[in-house]
Description:
Blueprint: H1 18-23, E1 33-37, H2 40-43, H3 56-61, H4 79-93, E2 97-101, H5 104-107, H6 121-132, E3 136-142, H7 148-154, H8 160-177, E4 183-188, H9 190-199, H10 211-235, E5 241-246, E6 251-253, H11 258-271, H12 273-281, H13 286-289, H14 298-304, E7 311-314, E8 320-324, E9 331-334, H15 354-366, E10 371-375, H16 393-411, E11 416-422, E12 441-444, E13 449-452, H17 454-465
Parallel strand pairs: 1-2, 1-11, 2-3, 3-4, 4-5, 5-7, 6-8, 7-10, 10-11
Antiparallel strand pairs: 8-9, 12-13
Helix pairs in contact: 4-6, 8-10, 9-10, 10-12, 10-14, 15-16
Bound molecules: 1-deoxynojirimycin.
1-deoxynojirimycin (NOJ) binds at residues 39, 42, 188-189, 314, 375, 422, 429, 438.
Amino acid sequence: xxxLSSRSGLAQSxxxxxxxxxxxxxxxxxxxxxxxxxxxxxxxGAVNEDGRGPSIWDxxxxxxxxxxxxxxxxxxADHFHRYKEDVQLMKALGAKAYxxxxxxxxxxxxxxxxxxxxGLDFYNRLLDELAxxxxxxxxxxxxxxxPQALQDRHGGWTSRETSKAFADYAAYVAARLxxxxxxxxxxxxxxxxxxxxxxxxxxxxxxxxxxxxxxxVRHHVALGHGLAVQAIRAHGRAGTRVGPAExxxxxxxxxxxxxxxxxxxxxMRELNAGYLTVMLEGKYTDAYLAQDAPxxxxxxxxxxxxxxxFVGINVYMPDHYVVAADNERGFTLxxxxxxFPHMKATWLRPGPETMYWVPRHVAKIWNVKSIYITxxxxxxxxxxxxxxxxxxxxxxxxxxxxxTQLQRATSAGVxxxxxxxxxLMDNFEWSDGYEQRFGLxxxxxxxxxxxxxxxxxxYRETIARNAVM
Length: 469
Ligand code: NOJ
């Protein structure tokens, strides 16, 4: 999987005949895996139970001024106690897979050293419940809730000690859950945790580092990914599959001409130099190293590019529309006009074709043979109508258009094997607290009552027909 190829054969294998396929059925491949996704700090709550240690998100959320509605994930959607009910919500959708994350500070309250004997109990219960209901677990090892102890002791991801501690934690988990977990994602959205957590301070741990320090953090995060891949291979059962879950910087041809498509591929490779490019090619690009280069060894690069089994990508929006240009880089990034629309969250600009182009680029640029869409979804205002129903037709519009583009991709031979909708239910949306709701199920956080929105019916019908509704 880590082999580099600028041509994956997609063009030869029918990629370009997509328009023909598109006009045919709207179906997905027979074995396509439909799922939903959540993450530990966003849904679990129970932050002081069974010996869990504090995470950087506990510290950050409890720091005045960091969360827009002054909330925390202390209780969140109380998934820790209500997981049985939540598995039934998945079942009601007909979903066959669930992507959730393990809270590292439940397992190693101090980040490393002695494991908490009760640390995996909750996940064991959850895994048994999923198995009893025929739902396949896809486990993310790190969805941003770093043990606070590692931040205090080593400066978190500013130190490679954290990359090593991550590998030890991954090894511990893989050795114990291997009877039920066949798929792991290492780190969720390296790009956001580096940029928002260490660049602009909007996410935990709230640092605002210099450009060269940021590149060093990014290197340690990529190294942590590679070390965890190796740890899972060494300690998991044979056949355990592993890959990243990245929010790739998405580069979309502004007009789909062959020249713009090539320019978008170039931009995609360059703008993901610190993540997917180094993971899949084992080297940083020259342009990336030209300024503020991180300190690293060739051994590090070999670790970072340890072979993976699939690439997970979170797809929300176009980051850049690209136009071919006669300049050194070969492309221009079109500025977004003020009139470009957005969903409820102002950052979430809808661009459904992102769901076609990002997996296609990943397959073509790096010859990747297996891709999962690890997240896709939108928040909405989600006000109940007079009859009590949440008619979230904005979410349905968004999903329908993105899934149409995903179907365009699969029918053109792009190897996407599954899709995890973000999110199963409303949850703690980081610095936006509970003000941005992404769930298919509405959660009343005062009573913890779950109620399906209209989009839950849309998704249930989509899964049942294995086709865009
Ligand atoms: C990506 C993150 O992985 C997830 O935690 C977050 O809630 C969604 N984006 C929506 O912002």
